[in-house]
Every structure is written in C-alpha cells, then in structure tokens.
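Q: Structure tokens for this one, please.
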Amino acid sequence: QVQLVESGGGLVQAGGSLRLSCAASGDIFSITAMGWYRQAPGKQRELVASITRGGSTNYADSVKGRFTISRDNAKSTVALQMNSLKPEDTAVYYCNAKEGIRTITNYWGQGTQVTVSS
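A: Here is the predicted structure, written as tokens:
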C-alpha cells in the first residue's frame, strides 16, 4: 500500500505560478512512476505530467514548456512547478503513484484545487 499526501495549490492570477508537492509513504520501493493528473468540472481526469523512477518524463501537450515535474527518490516526493498559468488550467490536481510492471496498481492523493483567474 502507498499513501500520498499533496500540498500546494490555491488561487492565482493568469500568468502566475504555483508549485504542487506530493509525499509518498508506505511501500514506496514498489513505486515505478509518479505523476499528476487533473480534473476540471464536467471533464474526465487527464494526465498532466509523469516521471519514472529513472527520471523519464511525459507531459500533456497543453502544459509543455510551462510545467515541470521533478522527483526526489530519496525523499519519495514529486513536485509540479506550474508557470504561466492559464484559466484553463483550473482543476483539481491529483497526485498519482503507479506500482507494478505487468499488473499496475494506481494510488491517488486526495486532490488539491488550483484556480487560475483571468
């Protein structure tokens, strides 16, 4: 079992920056990748960015060049630096951890609200 606790988020004006952090605990050595997803009202949850234990990253096209994901394996934390925020970035952001290779188990944080005003 893996537990995820998020911090950060809040209200910011368009063009501003926010930083989200997520700390993992429990069976952390089983985690193969961590990342951030978001869900806006009336929309499906979507991948924002992910990073593997080896440091390979993947970003949604909509955030490339603006968001940066980083991971500290020693501290079992993952962070998402969000710059040049836009109103369309408004959503609940969820930390995600994946466990396993052949059979993947997903763990989720409680979610943190990010609101970007125009």
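A few notes: DSSP finds no helices and eleven strands in the chain. The first strand starts at residue 2 and ends at 8.
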